[in-house]
Specification:
Layout: H1 3-10, H2 14-21, H3 29-41, H4 48-54, E1 61-66, H5 72-87, E2 91-96, H6 101-113, E3 118-121, H7 133-140, E4 145-148, E5 159-162, H8 164-178, E6 183-187, H9 193-208, E7 216-220, H10 225-238, E8 243-248, H11 251-264, E9 270-275, H12 280-285, E10 291-294, H13 298-314, E11 325-328, E12 332-334
Parallel strand pairs: 1-2, 1-3, 3-4, 4-5, 5-11, 6-7, 6-8, 8-9, 9-10
Antiparallel strand pairs: 10-12
Helix pairs in contact: 1-2, 1-3, 5-13, 6-7, 8-9, 10-11
Length: 341
């Protein structure tokens, strides 16, 4: 139920509804009572931000759309962007979509209603049968969008991303220099752009090293701790080799894998692990000398996404000759040795 519908039922103008909401003393008591009764009957709650706008109060609000606030990578980005926004006296409206398309639609509508100045957008899983009209609506309302970490196929919005394919390629080559050729690749759904890029980097490396299809196996989870645990249980219980090589392309799933690893590690002579990106928590859980990873530039890409959005907000008439896509790279950390895990 919106303000226009309330006005129609009460047989008054939208302006009258607004005056009642704002306690305008010029409104007749009988009119006020009629409007309040209709509002109560239909559980109408005025949009607080719209009310502030009607009073001439304007806030600088930026939307931040995130698929999973529990993900270590995203939680670090949220903190960085929030700190940047605070310095600029900007309010962040955080939207946690749980990676669900319908929630993305709902939140983008809210962001449009709140007349946000811009949006930093981390998409969930790409669904080919969806048209993503909600992203078009944001753009049609002249609200600039900057993709962060992930993108949506078919939308050439500016964005800041990890150089996922190149980083994954280097991690794969590095671990296969020192570890057995048989390797498990654990990934989330390849419908996520970043996961697909990491897979492409892995595949490029194994192809260059002439590793046959029998020498590697791909396991898919859902980016959650539980799926990392489940896949780890399956691999560690059933693999008959004395030595094991694992590449986990998502750090939350890596936490689940490391949890189950404690139950089964003694059956193997040696386990070598590669993880795409490491957090402080993962660093504490791993043997310092037995893994390959990289330190993800989370702060850098989060800051750059905020700076890019602010530039688009402050310079709305600026047209880049082509899409502005910033790729951030990092160095590989090799702590593999020949000791058993």
């Amino acid at each position: 139920m919106n303000i226009k519908e309330i006005a129609k039922i009460a047989n008054v103008s939208v302006a009258t509804i607004s005056r009642v909401v704002n306690n305008d003393p010029k409104v007749k008591q009988t009119t006020r009572e009629k409007v309040e009764q209709v509002m109560k009957q239909f559980n109408y709650t005025p949009n607080s931000y719209a009310t502030r706008l009607s009073k001439g109060v304007t806030d600088k609000i930026v939307g931040l759309v995130v698929p999973d606030v529990g993900n270590i990578l995203f939680s670090e980005m949220i903190e960085v962007i929030s700190n940047c926004a605070e310095k600029e006296n900007i309010t962040i409206l955080l939207c946690n979509t749980s990676g669900e398309y319908e929630k993305e639609k709902k939140f983008t509508k809210i962001l449009i209603d709140y007349k946000v100045k811009g949006v930093i957008y981390i998409p969930g899983k790409y669904e080919s049968n969806k048209n993503y009209t909600h992203l078009k609506e944001v753009s049609l309302n002249n609200i600039p969008i900057v993709f962060l970490d992930r993108e949506v196929k078919g939308f050439d919005f500016d964005g800041v991303f990890l150089d996922n394919q190149n980083i994954s390629y280097n991690i794969t080559k590095e671990i296969l220099k020192t570890a057995p050729k048989k390797i498990y690749f654990i990934s989330g759904s390849l419908d996520i752009s970043s996961a697909h890029e990491r897979f492409l980097g892995f595949k490029k490396a194994v192809d260059e090293l002439n590793i046959s299809n029998e020498e590697y196996e791909i396991k898919y989870g859902d980016f959650k701790f539980e799926s990392g645990y489940r896949l780890g249980e399956d691999i560690l219980k059933n693999d008959k080799n004395e030595e094991l090589t694992i590449y986990i392309a998502n750090n939350t799933m890596a936490l689940g894998f490391l949890k189950v690893l404690k139950k089964h590690s003694k059956k193997f002579k040696r386990i070598s692990i590669a993880i795409f990106g490491i957090s402080d928590i993962l660093d504490m859980l791993l043997d310092e000398e037995n893994y390959i990873t990289c330190k993800l530039p989370n702060k850098e890409i989060a800051e750059k996404s905020f700076e890019l959005l602010i530039d688009k907000i402050n310079n709305p008439n600026t047209c880049y000759e082509k899409r502005k896509k910033i790729l951030c790279n990092t160095t590989i950390i090799n702590r593999i040795n020949q000791k058993s895990f």
